[in-house]
Write a structure and sequence with these properties.
The chain has 366 residues and is an alpha/beta fold. Strands 1, 2, 3, 4, 5, 6, 7, 8, 9, 10 and 11 form an 11-stranded mixed beta sheet that branches. Helices cover 33% and strands 13% of the residues.
Length: 366
Protein backbone atom coordinates (compact mmCIF):
# COMPACT_ATOMS: atom_id res chain seq x y z
CA UNK A 1 0.00 0.00 0.00
CA UNK A 2 2.82 2.39 0.82
CA UNK A 3 5.38 3.64 -1.69
CA UNK A 4 8.61 4.14 0.22
CA UNK A 5 11.76 5.94 -0.78
CA UNK A 6 15.19 4.37 -0.70
CA UNK A 7 16.55 6.93 1.72
CA UNK A 8 17.49 5.86 5.27
CA UNK A 9 15.09 6.96 7.99
CA UNK A 10 16.25 9.42 10.62
CA UNK A 11 14.09 10.43 13.57
CA UNK A 12 12.30 13.69 12.92
CA UNK A 13 13.18 16.51 15.31
CA UNK A 14 11.06 19.42 14.22
CA UNK A 15 8.35 21.77 15.33
CA UNK A 16 5.59 19.70 13.72
CA UNK A 17 6.54 16.22 14.96
CA UNK A 18 3.53 15.77 17.24
CA UNK A 19 0.83 17.40 15.13
CA UNK A 20 0.41 19.24 11.85
CA UNK A 21 -0.54 22.90 11.75
CA UNK A 22 -3.40 22.08 9.39
CA UNK A 23 -5.29 19.06 8.15
CA UNK A 24 -6.99 19.12 4.77
CA UNK A 25 -10.00 16.82 4.62
CA UNK A 26 -11.31 16.01 1.16
CA UNK A 27 -14.91 15.62 2.32
CA UNK A 28 -16.02 14.43 -1.13
CA UNK A 29 -14.70 14.13 -4.67
CA UNK A 30 -18.04 15.17 -6.12
CA UNK A 31 -18.02 18.53 -7.94
CA UNK A 32 -20.00 20.19 -10.72
CA UNK A 33 -16.96 21.94 -12.20
CA UNK A 34 -14.45 20.36 -14.58
CA UNK A 35 -11.20 22.12 -13.69
CA UNK A 36 -8.24 21.39 -15.95
CA UNK A 37 -5.84 20.98 -13.01
CA UNK A 38 -8.13 19.10 -10.61
CA UNK A 39 -6.05 17.13 -8.11
CA UNK A 40 -9.06 14.99 -7.25
CA UNK A 41 -10.12 14.30 -10.85
CA UNK A 42 -13.56 15.12 -9.50
CA UNK A 43 -16.82 13.62 -10.79
CA UNK A 44 -20.38 14.93 -10.48
CA UNK A 45 -21.61 12.33 -7.97
CA UNK A 46 -20.59 11.36 -4.45
CA UNK A 47 -18.78 8.11 -3.73
CA UNK A 48 -20.53 5.61 -1.44
CA UNK A 49 -17.22 5.00 0.29
CA UNK A 50 -16.94 8.56 1.67
CA UNK A 51 -16.43 9.01 5.39
CA UNK A 52 -19.84 9.20 7.03
CA UNK A 53 -20.96 12.04 9.26
CA UNK A 54 -20.11 10.05 12.39
CA UNK A 55 -16.71 9.09 10.98
CA UNK A 56 -16.16 12.75 10.16
CA UNK A 57 -16.99 13.73 13.72
CA UNK A 58 -14.51 11.15 15.04
CA UNK A 59 -11.85 12.41 12.65
CA UNK A 60 -12.33 15.99 13.88
CA UNK A 61 -12.20 14.73 17.48
CA UNK A 62 -8.85 13.05 16.84
CA UNK A 63 -7.44 16.04 14.97
CA UNK A 64 -8.27 18.24 17.95
CA UNK A 65 -6.90 15.78 20.50
CA UNK A 66 -3.58 15.44 18.66
CA UNK A 67 -3.08 19.21 18.92
CA UNK A 68 -3.77 20.43 15.38
CA UNK A 69 -5.52 23.85 15.41
CA UNK A 70 -6.83 24.20 11.85
CA UNK A 71 -8.94 22.05 9.51
CA UNK A 72 -9.67 22.90 5.88
CA UNK A 73 -12.72 21.17 4.42
CA UNK A 74 -12.06 20.71 0.73
CA UNK A 75 -13.00 18.48 -2.18
CA UNK A 76 -14.27 18.09 -4.86
CA UNK A 77 -16.91 20.46 -3.61
CA UNK A 78 -17.75 20.12 0.09
CA UNK A 79 -21.05 21.91 -0.61
CA UNK A 80 -22.14 18.59 -2.13
CA UNK A 81 -22.40 17.17 1.40
CA UNK A 82 -25.70 17.83 3.20
CA UNK A 83 -23.95 17.50 6.58
CA UNK A 84 -21.43 20.28 5.82
CA UNK A 85 -22.73 22.73 8.41
CA UNK A 86 -22.92 19.98 11.04
CA UNK A 87 -19.25 19.16 10.40
CA UNK A 88 -18.27 22.82 10.70
CA UNK A 89 -20.24 23.23 13.91
CA UNK A 90 -18.76 20.07 15.43
CA UNK A 91 -15.22 21.20 14.70
CA UNK A 92 -15.90 24.71 15.96
CA UNK A 93 -17.39 23.36 19.20
CA UNK A 94 -14.18 21.35 19.69
CA UNK A 95 -12.12 24.53 19.41
CA UNK A 96 -10.84 23.92 15.89
CA UNK A 97 -10.59 26.74 13.37
CA UNK A 98 -12.68 25.47 10.49
CA UNK A 99 -12.03 26.72 6.96
CA UNK A 100 -13.84 25.80 3.76
CA UNK A 101 -13.01 25.78 0.04
CA UNK A 102 -16.27 25.28 -1.87
CA UNK A 103 -16.56 25.42 -5.63
CA UNK A 104 -18.15 28.53 -7.14
CA UNK A 105 -21.46 26.92 -8.13
CA UNK A 106 -25.13 27.64 -7.40
CA UNK A 107 -24.87 25.25 -4.41
CA UNK A 108 -23.25 28.07 -2.42
CA UNK A 109 -26.40 30.05 -1.70
CA UNK A 110 -26.85 32.95 0.69
CA UNK A 111 -28.77 30.58 2.97
CA UNK A 112 -25.86 28.12 3.07
CA UNK A 113 -23.42 30.95 3.79
CA UNK A 114 -25.60 32.16 6.66
CA UNK A 115 -25.72 28.64 8.09
CA UNK A 116 -21.95 28.25 7.77
CA UNK A 117 -21.41 31.59 9.50
CA UNK A 118 -23.74 30.60 12.32
CA UNK A 119 -21.94 27.24 12.61
CA UNK A 120 -18.71 29.13 13.31
CA UNK A 121 -16.84 28.90 10.03
CA UNK A 122 -13.54 30.76 10.42
CA UNK A 123 -12.66 31.27 6.77
CA UNK A 124 -14.30 30.88 3.37
CA UNK A 125 -11.91 30.47 0.42
CA UNK A 126 -13.03 30.64 -3.22
CA UNK A 127 -10.91 30.30 -6.35
CA UNK A 128 -10.27 33.01 -8.92
CA UNK A 129 -7.94 31.90 -11.70
CA UNK A 130 -7.94 34.86 -14.01
CA UNK A 131 -8.57 38.57 -14.26
CA UNK A 132 -10.96 37.93 -17.14
CA UNK A 133 -14.04 35.76 -17.38
CA UNK A 134 -12.68 33.81 -20.37
CA UNK A 135 -9.49 32.87 -18.52
CA UNK A 136 -11.21 31.70 -15.34
CA UNK A 137 -14.21 29.96 -16.90
CA UNK A 138 -12.00 28.28 -19.50
CA UNK A 139 -9.81 26.86 -16.73
CA UNK A 140 -12.73 25.83 -14.51
CA UNK A 141 -14.64 24.29 -17.39
CA UNK A 142 -18.01 25.94 -16.66
CA UNK A 143 -19.36 29.23 -17.98
CA UNK A 144 -20.51 31.55 -15.22
CA UNK A 145 -18.02 30.36 -12.59
CA UNK A 146 -16.14 33.69 -12.74
CA UNK A 147 -19.24 35.74 -11.96
CA UNK A 148 -20.32 33.28 -9.27
CA UNK A 149 -16.95 33.62 -7.54
CA UNK A 150 -17.40 37.36 -7.10
CA UNK A 151 -21.02 36.92 -6.03
CA UNK A 152 -20.06 34.40 -3.32
CA UNK A 153 -17.24 36.56 -1.99
CA UNK A 154 -19.36 39.71 -1.84
CA UNK A 155 -22.24 37.88 -0.16
CA UNK A 156 -19.93 36.29 2.40
CA UNK A 157 -18.33 39.64 3.25
CA UNK A 158 -21.76 41.19 3.57
CA UNK A 159 -22.58 38.50 6.13
CA UNK A 160 -19.49 39.39 8.12
CA UNK A 161 -17.46 36.32 7.13
CA UNK A 162 -13.69 36.40 6.59
CA UNK A 163 -12.71 35.44 3.07
CA UNK A 164 -9.79 34.24 1.01
CA UNK A 165 -9.08 33.93 -2.71
CA UNK A 166 -7.10 31.02 -4.11
CA UNK A 167 -5.45 31.27 -7.54
CA UNK A 168 -3.85 28.46 -9.51
CA UNK A 169 -1.01 29.78 -11.66
CA UNK A 170 0.24 28.27 -14.90
CA UNK A 171 1.14 29.28 -18.41
CA UNK A 172 -2.46 30.16 -19.17
CA UNK A 173 -2.72 33.00 -16.64
CA UNK A 174 0.70 33.98 -15.27
CA UNK A 175 0.52 37.28 -17.16
CA UNK A 176 -2.67 38.25 -15.29
CA UNK A 177 -1.35 38.11 -11.71
CA UNK A 178 -1.21 41.85 -11.12
CA UNK A 179 -4.70 42.35 -12.53
CA UNK A 180 -6.07 39.53 -10.38
CA UNK A 181 -4.54 41.25 -7.36
CA UNK A 182 -6.20 44.52 -8.32
CA UNK A 183 -9.60 42.86 -8.60
CA UNK A 184 -9.45 41.01 -5.30
CA UNK A 185 -8.17 44.10 -3.48
CA UNK A 186 -11.71 45.46 -3.86
CA UNK A 187 -13.25 42.44 -2.11
CA UNK A 188 -11.82 42.96 1.41
CA UNK A 189 -10.28 39.51 1.51
CA UNK A 190 -7.81 38.54 4.23
CA UNK A 191 -5.49 36.32 2.23
CA UNK A 192 -4.50 35.50 -1.33
CA UNK A 193 -3.37 31.90 -1.69
CA UNK A 194 -1.36 31.33 -4.87
CA UNK A 195 -0.90 27.75 -6.02
CA UNK A 196 1.75 26.72 -8.54
CA UNK A 197 0.46 23.69 -10.39
CA UNK A 198 1.78 20.23 -9.51
CA UNK A 199 1.30 17.55 -12.21
CA UNK A 200 -1.05 15.23 -10.38
CA UNK A 201 -4.70 14.35 -10.96
CA UNK A 202 -5.81 16.10 -14.15
CA UNK A 203 -2.82 18.43 -14.20
CA UNK A 204 -0.19 17.41 -16.74
CA UNK A 205 3.54 18.00 -16.84
CA UNK A 206 2.90 20.37 -19.75
CA UNK A 207 1.44 22.84 -17.25
CA UNK A 208 4.71 23.08 -15.31
CA UNK A 209 6.46 26.43 -15.37
CA UNK A 210 10.21 26.67 -15.82
CA UNK A 211 12.37 27.56 -12.80
CA UNK A 212 13.02 31.03 -14.22
CA UNK A 213 9.31 31.60 -14.81
CA UNK A 214 8.57 30.53 -11.23
CA UNK A 215 11.26 32.83 -9.86
CA UNK A 216 9.77 35.73 -11.80
CA UNK A 217 6.30 34.94 -10.45
CA UNK A 218 7.61 34.82 -6.88
CA UNK A 219 9.32 38.18 -7.34
CA UNK A 220 6.09 39.66 -8.67
CA UNK A 221 4.11 38.20 -5.76
CA UNK A 222 6.54 39.75 -3.29
CA UNK A 223 6.13 43.11 -5.02
CA UNK A 224 2.34 42.77 -4.84
CA UNK A 225 2.45 41.74 -1.18
CA UNK A 226 4.48 44.83 -0.27
CA UNK A 227 1.47 47.10 -0.84
CA UNK A 228 -1.60 44.85 -1.05
CA UNK A 229 -4.38 45.18 1.55
CA UNK A 230 -4.26 41.40 2.05
CA UNK A 231 -1.60 38.84 2.91
CA UNK A 232 -0.07 36.59 0.27
CA UNK A 233 0.96 32.96 0.71
CA UNK A 234 1.97 30.26 -1.72
CA UNK A 235 1.05 26.59 -2.01
CA UNK A 236 3.49 24.14 -3.62
CA UNK A 237 5.99 26.99 -3.87
CA UNK A 238 7.81 27.11 -0.53
CA UNK A 239 10.74 28.85 -2.22
CA UNK A 240 8.66 32.01 -1.85
CA UNK A 241 9.81 31.95 1.78
CA UNK A 242 13.42 31.81 0.61
CA UNK A 243 12.87 34.80 -1.65
CA UNK A 244 11.21 36.81 1.14
CA UNK A 245 14.06 36.00 3.49
CA UNK A 246 16.58 37.11 0.88
CA UNK A 247 14.72 40.39 0.51
CA UNK A 248 14.55 40.85 4.25
CA UNK A 249 18.28 40.37 4.60
CA UNK A 250 19.04 42.67 1.66
CA UNK A 251 16.64 45.46 2.56
CA UNK A 252 15.89 44.92 6.23
CA UNK A 253 12.18 44.90 5.42
CA UNK A 254 9.82 43.10 7.79
CA UNK A 255 6.13 42.59 7.07
CA UNK A 256 3.57 41.10 9.42
CA UNK A 257 1.97 37.77 8.55
CA UNK A 258 -1.15 37.80 10.72
CA UNK A 259 -4.14 36.99 8.52
CA UNK A 260 -7.01 36.58 10.93
CA UNK A 261 -7.15 32.80 10.96
CA UNK A 262 -3.65 32.06 12.20
CA UNK A 263 -0.37 31.20 10.54
CA UNK A 264 2.10 28.49 11.30
CA UNK A 265 5.06 29.70 13.38
CA UNK A 266 7.30 28.51 10.54
CA UNK A 267 6.80 27.36 6.96
CA UNK A 268 4.81 24.19 6.40
CA UNK A 269 5.27 21.64 3.65
CA UNK A 270 4.07 18.23 2.52
CA UNK A 271 4.02 16.01 5.62
CA UNK A 272 5.67 18.75 7.66
CA UNK A 273 2.88 20.71 9.28
CA UNK A 274 0.43 19.47 6.64
CA UNK A 275 -1.61 16.28 6.47
CA UNK A 276 -4.33 15.30 4.00
CA UNK A 277 -7.25 12.91 4.45
CA UNK A 278 -9.09 11.69 1.35
CA UNK A 279 -12.84 11.26 0.99
CA UNK A 280 -12.38 7.58 1.82
CA UNK A 281 -10.13 8.21 4.82
CA UNK A 282 -6.74 7.61 3.20
CA UNK A 283 -3.93 9.62 4.80
CA UNK A 284 -1.34 11.43 2.67
CA UNK A 285 1.46 13.94 3.39
CA UNK A 286 -0.53 16.39 1.25
CA UNK A 287 -3.23 16.32 -1.39
CA UNK A 288 -0.60 16.77 -4.09
CA UNK A 289 1.73 14.01 -2.86
CA UNK A 290 -0.29 10.86 -3.64
CA UNK A 291 1.55 8.29 -1.52
CA UNK A 292 -0.99 6.67 0.84
CA UNK A 293 0.39 6.07 4.32
CA UNK A 294 -2.64 4.69 6.13
CA UNK A 295 -6.34 5.21 6.67
CA UNK A 296 -8.23 6.93 9.47
CA UNK A 297 -10.58 3.94 9.55
CA UNK A 298 -7.66 1.70 10.52
CA UNK A 299 -4.60 3.35 12.11
CA UNK A 300 -5.96 6.80 12.84
CA UNK A 301 -4.41 10.09 11.76
CA UNK A 302 -2.32 10.57 14.93
CA UNK A 303 -0.37 7.34 14.54
CA UNK A 304 0.26 7.85 10.85
CA UNK A 305 1.32 11.49 11.10
CA UNK A 306 3.67 10.90 14.05
CA UNK A 307 5.12 7.50 13.26
CA UNK A 308 4.93 6.67 9.55
CA UNK A 309 8.45 6.52 8.06
CA UNK A 310 7.63 8.73 5.08
CA UNK A 311 6.29 11.51 7.29
CA UNK A 312 9.47 11.26 9.36
CA UNK A 313 11.62 11.53 6.25
CA UNK A 314 9.72 14.54 4.98
CA UNK A 315 10.32 16.32 8.29
CA UNK A 316 14.10 15.87 8.09
CA UNK A 317 15.62 18.49 5.74
CA UNK A 318 18.99 16.77 5.90
CA UNK A 319 17.55 13.92 3.82
CA UNK A 320 16.77 16.13 0.84
CA UNK A 321 18.61 15.34 -2.37
CA UNK A 322 20.29 17.36 -5.09
CA UNK A 323 20.62 21.08 -4.66
CA UNK A 324 17.79 21.12 -2.07
CA UNK A 325 19.98 19.03 0.22
CA UNK A 326 22.87 21.45 -0.27
CA UNK A 327 20.75 24.59 0.07
CA UNK A 328 21.25 26.92 3.01
CA UNK A 329 17.51 27.61 2.89
CA UNK A 330 16.43 23.97 3.15
CA UNK A 331 14.97 24.44 6.66
CA UNK A 332 13.14 27.60 5.58
CA UNK A 333 11.94 26.30 2.23
CA UNK A 334 12.55 22.61 1.57
CA UNK A 335 11.09 22.73 -1.94
CA UNK A 336 7.79 21.21 -2.99
CA UNK A 337 8.03 17.55 -2.07
CA UNK A 338 4.91 16.91 -4.15
CA UNK A 339 6.45 18.38 -7.31
CA UNK A 340 9.70 16.51 -6.68
CA UNK A 341 7.72 13.27 -6.52
CA UNK A 342 5.65 14.11 -9.60
CA UNK A 343 8.72 14.90 -11.71
CA UNK A 344 11.44 12.67 -10.26
CA UNK A 345 9.44 9.86 -8.63
CA UNK A 346 11.16 10.62 -5.31
CA UNK A 347 9.58 12.94 -2.72
CA UNK A 348 13.02 13.77 -1.33
CA UNK A 349 14.56 14.77 -4.66
CA UNK A 350 15.40 18.37 -5.49
CA UNK A 351 12.63 20.81 -6.35
CA UNK A 352 12.44 20.87 -10.18
CA UNK A 353 10.90 24.37 -10.38
CA UNK A 354 13.43 26.33 -8.36
CA UNK A 355 15.99 28.58 -10.06
CA UNK A 356 18.15 29.16 -6.99
CA UNK A 357 21.58 27.51 -6.91
CA UNK A 358 23.12 27.15 -3.44
CA UNK A 359 26.48 28.78 -2.90
CA UNK A 360 29.28 26.47 -4.02
CA UNK A 361 26.89 23.81 -5.28
CA UNK A 362 27.99 21.74 -8.26
CA UNK A 363 25.37 19.43 -9.75
CA UNK A 364 26.21 15.75 -9.96
CA UNK A 365 26.79 14.36 -13.43
CA UNK A 366 23.79 12.39 -14.70
Amino acid sequence: MVAMTSHPLRPARGLFDAAPFMVFWETTRACDLACLHCRASALPFRNKGELTTDEGFRLLDEIRSMGCPLVVLTGGDPAKRPDLCALVRHGTDLGLRMALTPSATPLVTRKLLEELRDAGLARLAVSLDGAERATHDGFRGVDGSYARTFEILRTARGLGMTTQVNTSVGRFNQHELERVAEKIAQLEIELWGVFLVVPTGRASAAQLLSPDEVESILERLADIAATAPFDVKTTAAPHYRRLLLQRKVARNEVRGIADGIGRAPRGVNDGQGICFVSHKGEIYPSGFLPIPCGNVRVEGITEVYRDHPLFGQLRDPDLLGGKCGACEFRKVCGGSRARAYAVHGDPLAEEPSCAYVPRGYVAEAS
